[in-house]
Structure formats: C-alpha cells, structure tokens
Amino acid sequence: MILDEQELRQHLAAAADHLGAPRFPVDGLISRIRRRRAQALALVSGSLLAVAALAVAVPVALSGPGTPPVASRPAIVRHLLSFTVAVNGQSRKTGSPPRFTVTPGEHLRIRIGVIVPAHAQVTTLWLGVTKDGIGSPGRDGQRPAGMRPVLAHTPNPLTPGLHTFRLTWTMPARLRRGTTLSLAAAWTTRQQDARVAQFAAQLVTPR
C-alpha cells in the first residue's frame, strides 16, 4: 500500500501520541523521506536514459564507416545450354534427350547445335560419348569423368548464340542389343566457377 505525504504525517503523529513524547520530529522525518524519494527517482531516470542511449548507439556503431554493410551472398547461377542433334541426317524433336536407333559398327555423322543463352559466359566445352554416366569437368580443366571418347573440345570461350559442331564416330561393333550410349556435353562457366554436365542425345542399338 502506498501512502501520500498527508496520510504518512497523520500516521506518524498518531504513533507519536501513542508512545508519548516523540523521539524524533515528524517534519524532519518527512523531509528525509522526500530526499530519499527524489534520489530514487533520479537513479531510475538515469538508468532509463543510459539504456536508451545504448540502444541508439549500438546500431550507429555497427553501421559506422569502419564496418562494411552486410550483403546477402549471391546465389550460384548455372546456365544450362540448349542442343539440337542430328545423326546421319535424321533429327528428333521429341524426347529429352532425343533417342536415335543405330546399329553396332555403324559410321555416324553427328551434327550438334549448341545454343548459349544470353549473358552466359561459357569458358570451355566438351562433347563426347558416355555409357555409364558423366561427371562435371575438373577444376583445372581436366576431361569430364566418364566421357570416352571426347569428340570435340573448345578451350576458348563461347559467345551467346548458336554454335554448330560436325562430328564423326563409329559405333563399337560388339555391342549387345538394346545397349544405350549417350551423346553428352560438359562445360564450365565464369559465373561462380560453375561446372555442368548434360546429356544431349541417346544412341540405342536395336533389341
């Protein structure tokens, strides 16, 4: 319960009358209480001001000229290429990747159109054949794992647009029926040093 000054004065006077002669003056006690109350209010106000000043000073210090602003890390952008493939004059517009039926030992004339999208920076490109999958190019320019043989390799950057490659290759003569080989592409881009591999077409022997 909180007493105001008048009620406190009345309670002190009643206590003094009950005890007889007062051992201390009521006015002096009231003055002492006033001073203690003022000191307590000053202490609380000072603490609140200090906390407010700290809350303002911390953001200013963190964003000051000596600390660079925190920027979000850009996402890695891997530019996929587009391909058009023709084998022995035949092209397929369906399938992803398209499938071509070839016979073991057949000599193939392959035309691959590589479409580099705008703003892409392809630094090197491999085109070849794979049977069991393909890995991305090595960081130091090594041949992609699983690409045997390599039919084309361009160590120079490719500009955006269409690039046509005319290749020849002979299917292995001792392939089982229903065997699938893949024409594959692997490349590197300048953006974030990305290394990408992708199938361009499938070569399937008859069952």
Describe the protein in words.
With 207 residues, the chain is of the alpha+beta class. It folds into two domains: 5-62, no CATH class; 82-204, Immunoglobulins (Immunoglobulin-like). The protein has helices at 5-19, 26-62; strands at 82-87, 90-91, 99-101, 107-116, 122-130, 150-154, 161-170, 180-189, 195-204. The strands form two sheets. The chain has a five-stranded mixed beta sheet, with no helix packed on it. A four-stranded antiparallel beta sheet has the order 2-1-4-7, with no helix packed on it. It is rod-shaped, with a radius of gyration of 42 Å. It starts with a helix and ends with a strand. 15% of the residues are buried. Residues 47-77 have low confidence and may be disordered.
- The portion of residues assigned to helices is 25-40%
Radius of gyration from the CA trace? 42 Å
Query: How many strands, which pairing sense, and closed or not: the largest β-sheet?
Result: 5 strands, mixed
CATH-defined topology of the largest domain: Immunoglobulin-like
Total count of domains:
2
Report the total helices.
2
Question: How do the helices and strands follow one another from N- to C-terminus?
Answer: HHEEEEEEEEE
Which outline best applies? rod-shaped
Low-confidence stretches: 47-77
CATH architecture classification name of the largest domain = Sandwich
Number of strands: 9
Strand content: 25-35%
Tell me which oligomeric state these chains represent: single chain
CATH H-level homologous superfamily name of the largest domain? Immunoglobulins
If you average the pLDDT, what whole number results?
Answer: 74
* Strand adjacency order, main sheet: 3-9-8-5-6
Derived structural class: alpha+beta
What is the terminal separation in angstroms?
Answer: 98 Å
CATH level 1 class label of the largest domain: Mainly Beta
